Amino acid sequence: MSGAALLRLQGVSKSYGSVHANRAIDLDVSHQSIHAVLGENGAGKSTLMKLIYGVERPDVGKIEWQGREVRPTSSAEARRLGIGMVFQHFSLFETLTVAENISLLVPGTKAALAARVRDLGATFELEVDPNAHVHSLSVGERQRVEILRCLLLDPKLIILDEPTSVLPPQSVQRLFGTLRLLRDRGVSILFISHKLEEIRALCDTATILQAGRVTGRVDPRQASSRDLATLMIGREMPPPPLHAKAKPGPKVLEVAGLDHATDDPFGVSLSGISLDVRAGEIVGIAGISGNGQKELAEILSGEVALLSAQRDVIRMMDRPVGHLGAAARRRLGFAFVPEERMGRGAVPEMPLTDNALLTAHDRGLVRRGLVRRQHKAAFAQACVEEFDVRTPSVQAEAGALSGGNLQKFIIGREIMLEPKLLFVAQPTWGVDIGAATAIRRRLVALRDSGAAILMISEEIEELFEICDRLYVLHKGRLSPSLRVQGTTVEQVGEWMTGAAGEPAHA
Amino acid sequence: MSALAFILAGTLAAATPLLLAALGELVAERSGVLNLGLEGLMALAAALAFIVVYQGGGHALAFAVGAVAGMVAALVFAGAVLTFRANQVAAGLAIGILCLGLSALAGRSFESLTITGLPKLEVPLLSDLPTIGGLFRQDIVVWLALLGTLAIHVMLRHTKVGLIVRAVGENPRAAQAIGHPVIPIRYAALAFGGCMAGVAGAYASTVYTPLWADGMIAGRGWIAIALVVFGTWQTGRVFLGACLFGALSLAELAAQVVGVQLPSQLLASMPYLVTIVVLGLISSNRRRMRLNSVASLGEPFEK
Amino acid sequence: MPEFVPREHASVRASVLAPFLALALTVVVSLVLFALLGKPSGAALHALFIEPFLSWYSFSEVLLKTGPLLLIAQGLAIGFRAKVFNIGAEGQLILGAICASALPVYLPTSTSPWLWPAMMVLGALGGALWASIAALWRTWLNASEILVTLMLSLVASQLLNYLLLGPWKDPAGFNFPQSVMFQYEAMLPTLLPGTRVNVSLLFGLAATLAAWVLMQLSFLGYQLVVGGLAPRAASYAGFRGGRAVWVSLLLGGLAAGLAGAAEVAGPIGQLQRSVASGYGFTAITVAYLGGLRPLGIVLSSFLMAVITIGGDSAMVTADLPVAAVRVVQGLLLIFYLAALVGVRYRIVWSRIATQATS
Hints:
The structure holds 3 protein chains of 3 kinds.
Chain A: E1 7-16, E2 19-29, E3 34-38, H1 45-52, E4 60-65, E5 68-70, H2 75-81, E6 83-86, H3 98-103, H4 110-124, H5 139-151, E7 157-161, H6 169-184, E8 188-193, H7 196-202, E9 205-210, E10 213-218, H8 225-233, E11 251-260, E12 270-278, E13 282-286, H9 293-301, E14 314-316, E15 319-320, H10 326-331, E16 334-337, H11 352-360, E17 366-367, E18 370-371, H12 373-386, H13 403-416, E19 421-425, H14 433-448, E20 452-456, H15 460-466, E21 469-474, E22 477-478, E23 482-483, H16 489-497, H17 502-505
Helix pairs in contact in A: 11-12, 11-13, 12-13, 13-14
Chain B: H1 3-30, H2 38-54, H3 58-83, H4 88-107, E1 120-122, E2 137-139, H5 140-158, H6 160-170, H7 172-177, H8 182-208, H9 220-230, H10 235-249, H11 251-258, H12 264-283, H13 286-292
Antiparallel strand pairs in B: 1-2
Chain C: E1 2-6, H1 12-36, H2 41-50, H3 56-81, H4 89-106, H5 115-141, H6 145-165, H7 200-217, H8 219-229, H9 231-237, H10 241-268, H11 279-289, H12 294-317, H13 323-339, H14 341-344, E2 345-349
């Protein structure tokens, strides 16, 4: 690993308007190394990747590739240099086959590509059927397609953006095996993550970003998680919320044998879903996205209502609600925070006041069919203050808020409805650690006040931190209820891959 | 001539303007853009092409002028929706209104004049068959339209260009991320669609009914848009739909041949009524619509 | 190359400026176009934009045209904000005219003072009924309301032809495709004595007030707007999408039908083909040009009425065909829609930026 670095960034800065996404970044990636870029959401990792991959141009600073200064102005140019990228939200096309997807980027006939896919797949433990349509693949398989697509271009550096967020624990080990194999064959890896343990397990070097600046360069195998965390967020990790033992009350949500064939040709059908949530407890649903989370959320929220004959399949507050729409369920004391903030949980083009009206209209904000302006503004103002939403005013458009602040607003709005049952999906996706901690505290506080909470999340750590019980969703089926105390991450992982309990549940 | 022979002989020619315009719209929609201005594009091209032939420029030049007119109009639309991010529905209507106005303006002095169309080319032997023989006596544009249908089918299904167009329509962000520039590709797809609409309009006014009259496109542009939905965005089915509507548009004449007594307005409404009914039948299969439709259709793209 | 950089907040200034920018660009392009056609451009513009104000009569004609445009555009704009695209107002107008005409056609001797009010009610219902087919098709069969409303308007004009050439043809009308002339009681009261301006202008103003209350103050209007901006947010909140479709199409049909009824009971005085003179399509332009806002539409309907009347003068003074009005209308709309980009984006003129690297 002597001589010039493979990739060297010197004093690279990039701003968007008044936001300094990257400030004077220096970064050295050596040959044959796995280099981590560690930082929390919003630290500037993605911007940095875009600069390296040619999607954006730096305002100032220099990028050197194999000792030569380069200015990639497009991703195509970056690929020609030998830089590949695996996106967090895959850039694949569902209606096309694996081979077709690859041929959009890699020259060659489909037959030749298919052969190379099989070849490389066998070498690097990335097996996937080249003739399969992408929509029929699991998330893990899709990631393999993305990596294969990079490899077929014979890169010297592959950037992976949060690659483990879509994988169950066991598959993470398999991915790491592949990445080590690649390193040993001469491909360097730039591994973007916010997960400390993974970086310590995998990477040779780590560059840590905080608020757009480099705050450290360390050998992660030598550093402690605590050191890394401090470099990443600039202070010690906030302690997890106090978590007293739950005192479960009566059942507030009961789902009994829910079967649902989805309308969406690319969706997941649910079968035999049974679960219950009692007052005063937080119940989690673990699992990798794309296993039926979206469909289950739509059915529980009432956005997709069941037929009248299935009214008893879902009961809330001891009443059959399967046939009811979202508004009717809300009137029973149900509230919901969806995984998409923009365009579902909030209307980005509308001010916060109007976004308060979205679900809080029954709390005196409407009289005789007319909207009461003052009440609306007062509700929004109370929410902003109570939940520490950073915004210039309640007249600001929802779309102008950062992800964490908008999420605080939405969760705040739903909590202010004083729900008996709160359903939250991916509450801390893309949210910075400060906001994520605040959100989890609020959820625990709501539980302690006697509400029932159901939470879908991909983050096992988060589920273990605040849930009392867990279910795991895999391929549209739900595991039996698991007590958090006495269950290990590995056990949950087995349910996530379907390795556990198949016979018991079939 | 029996009514059946009459319809068989005339269907392909009647279907051709619908088919050409619908194929162009199909490619544009496959890339993710809905162009509702088709009716206007066809009318503008029809007026200009007619003028060219009337002034002695010949059919080849007329079709070229029609194609260019359609393309230019489509590019104006493309500029509005792709560069200036205008609402696709409203901008489509706007370009339709504009082109209809321009066509009336250009064609005013040529209203209700006539010209000669194009000769029929016969397939030897087959065209002598009883009843179905008429099917094999068509003008060159019809034959070319059939070839074009095949070419577009192959292009969309089996070539790299088709793959890229489909990819851009399904997931523009991903396409952009892997280096296929969405906006230029959509410009190109719209330009192609405009060209096809232009050729369709030129055919309507210089070959199919060789005369110009304001309003002569008579909803064909809209039916072409509906045909793309009927065909669930697939070339073969769009072709079948065009033939169905071609045959239907002959129903009025065929009814006279047979001597059926129905109000002519009812017969004239048939294509529209059938469009409404078929649209309902096809669209009600939500699952199939979602499976086949273009995911990003009508949505603005932001880099 | 111009580049568009997203703004953090929608710019009010840009949304107010857009129609004026569009008007200016339209004037410039029309000047060039008319010159290319060998028409006297200056005279044409004078005729289009100035002459309507030069006499009381032509100004009163502008007011007469403003009525139906205002009424229809208010109805359509509600739907457009909910992203329910009713582009077949022309057909709903025709049905309104037909339904209203049924009374004087079948009761030619009635002298009831309730005749014209009953015609208005029937007309509005007729328009709403025609639009409800599209609403049913959309909510029940998932069919695009754009295509269905348009097809229905083509069917409506055939239906009008059928009635005028067949059962409703005036036997004493020298075989012209028109119904009998309506009796006095079937005619709308005049609003401004000595002109043809009738109470339909009041219908337009009442519709404006109603639309303003609905869209600015009411919770229903809020739900429609949410459905238009973010359909998934609407279904998340439990606002029913089907209801938005029904409300939008019924209100649009109601307004267009009423406008059609007011045409036959007003300036036309009988049912004839000229009732389908394109108000339904022009109103789409009017609705957008008014920013889909009730008060903006008051201005844009007036502007479009000016251009329409101006077009009639231009035919005489500048030898400009009526089609020129459609061209001007199309230009206005396309320029306006393009100019709206300034509301959400800042325009930055940049050369391909080569960075000043160290």
